[in-house]
Design goal:
With 301 residues, the chain is of the alpha/beta class. It has eleven helices and ten strands.
Length: 301
């Protein structure tokens, strides 16, 4: 490779930081995803901008947005980097490998999937399941995953979607809070802080509407990124929580959380196993798919 060819290949670390930062239009979120500090991401972007002699991001206070040059560069290099990742994963993968990589939402992985994996291991001892948590949007194939657990609509373009189950949420409270309060009707919950999960900010409103209480607005309560954070805060007495029942079975069984009322909120979205169709050509993946679909059917009753 001559000097000119080398000059046209920017540092891979800087390119990767640019790709993630451009996707989020946020250096802090890119830092969280990659595992670096925000200042390290900023330095990587500065290195790339110096290399290219263009401004990739417009900085307004603490906010960043892609410049026109940045958008054009992203559109050009993102497919190339994705192709490199896919090609690399295919080279290092062994056709007879019995390992699967599954991406999942943290709460689902910890409270539904992980406790059941022991049974799968006993059935298929040669299978190795590697599980990673993912919250934000990502490229399933480029990131080397065989499948993912997705919540929402079956809207991943070009992917197969197997319905696992819909989510039913219930209102819960710590026994200590319940002991000195009268909870005769759902309206009594409005006297308490209502804990909120980041992606479900409208859930309490829909719960009250379904309970026939639509002439009041629930106040803004503390917001948490993950359901299990909400569960722990509720168990500690921080307020009432609206949580998927399957995620809080341990707290319900131990009495750390107590359900309130019989009303359940079924979300319009559902949990799906999402995967490229060609994964079914691998017997080990087909076995995993059959197992998780069967487990979900049993859980639905």
């Amino acid at each position: 490779m001559n000097d000119r060819s080398r000059r046209l290949l920017p540092p891979m670390g800087a390119l990767h930081s640019f790709l993630i930062a451009a996707r989020h239009e946020s250096f802090s979120r890119a830092a969280d995803e990659i595992g670096l500090t925000q200042s390290a991401i900023s330095r990587q972007i500065a290195t790339l901008e110096d290399w290219l002699q263009v401004t990739l991001f417009t900085r307004i206070g603490r906010r960043v947005t892609l410049s026109a040059d940045g958008r054009a560069y992203l559109d050009a290099v993102a497919p190339a980097l994705a192709a490199i990742r896919v090609a690399t994963s295919r080279v290092i993968a062994r056709p007879d490998d019995n390992a699967l990589s599954i991406a999942t939402l943290p709460g689902f992985g910890m409270r539904w999937l992980a406790p059941r994996l022991g049974g799968l291991t006993r059935e298929v001892p040669e299978l190795v399941i590697n599980v990673a948590a993912r919250v934000h949007e990502f490229d399933l194939e480029a990131d080397g995953f065989d499948a993912m657990i997705h919540f929402g609509a079956p809207d991943w373009h070009g992917m197969e979607h197997d319905l696992l189950f819909h989510e039913q949420s219930i209102a819960v409270i710590a026994p200590a809070l319940l002991a000195d309060r009268q909870m005769a009707s759902p309206a009594d919950l409005l006297k308490l802080p209502l804990l909120v999960q980041t992606e479900r900010r409208g859930a309490w409103r829909r719960w009250f509407d379904a309970a026939g209480i639509n002439d009041v607005l629930p106040g803004d309560g503390p917001v948490f990124e993950h359901f299990l954070m909400v569960a722990q805060a509720a168990a500690g007495g921080a307020g009432a929580a609206l949580l998927p029942r399957f995620m809080i079975e341990p707290e319900l069984e131990s009495g750390a959380l107590v359900p309130l009322f019989d009303h359940r909120l079924e979300d319009e979205g559902a949990y799906y196993l999402v995967y490229p169709a060609d994964r079914l050509k691998r017997p080990i993946f087909a076995r995993f798919r059959a197992w998780i679909v069967e487990q979900a059917a049993s859980a639905r009753g």
